[in-house]
Amino acid sequence: MFSFMKKMQNREIVDPIKEANFDLALNEKGQQFVAQAVKQIPVEDVSLAWRSQLNEKLLQESAKVSSTRKRINFVWRPMAGVAVGAALAFALIVPRNDGVGSIQSYSVEASLMQAHISADRSHELIGSAIVSADNQSNGFVMPANYEWQETDLGAL
């Protein structure tokens, strides 16, 4: 049906049977009723006064919103900048405490404690199933069922 209407609009050659069917459809009572109803609608000149009033109201509302946003941005943007700067300063300047007392001297005891803490942390992360690379390099592997003595634990 739409291709027929496009052909009619473009003034192309149309099949006479289809054109006759189209004319019959347009002359039915329902189509005539719609045509009369459309003709009875009063013709009004388009008035753009309502559009002008709407534009003025929208302009007033947008001015209110923009002034409110300016006030909010005037307060919140500097506060956000200060908060980000403070968080960055806190993260970079404040020393971290891991809950373990740090030994400041570079003595043998300090290096032993650091090695123990590092091994303990890696053992917590990795688990006991994986043997560390240090133990593999010298060929010594501690048996899993080894029973520690009090003197062994005291030496740590």
Strand content: under 5%
Sheet with most strands: none
Rg over CA atoms, rounded to whole Å, is 44 Å
Tally of alpha and pi helices: 7
Helix-strand pattern = HHHHHHH
Structural class based on helices, strands and sheet pairing: mainly alpha
Shape: elongated
> Which range best describes the helical content: under 10%, 10-25%, 25-40%, 40-55%, 55-70% or over 70%?
55-70%
Uncertain spans: none
Describe the protein in words.
The protein is an all-alpha fold. Helices cover 68% and strands 0% of the residues. It has seven helices and no strands. The chain has helices at 2-9, 16-26, 29-40, 49-93, 108-126, 133-137, 150-155. The mean pLDDT is 76.
List the helices and strands and how they pair.
Blueprint: H1 2-9, H2 16-26, H3 29-40, H4 49-93, H5 108-126, H6 133-137, H7 150-155
Structure characteristics:
single chain, 156 residues, mainly alpha, 7 helices, elongated
Brief sketch in words of this structure:
With 156 residues, the protein is mainly α. The chain has 7 helices and no strands.
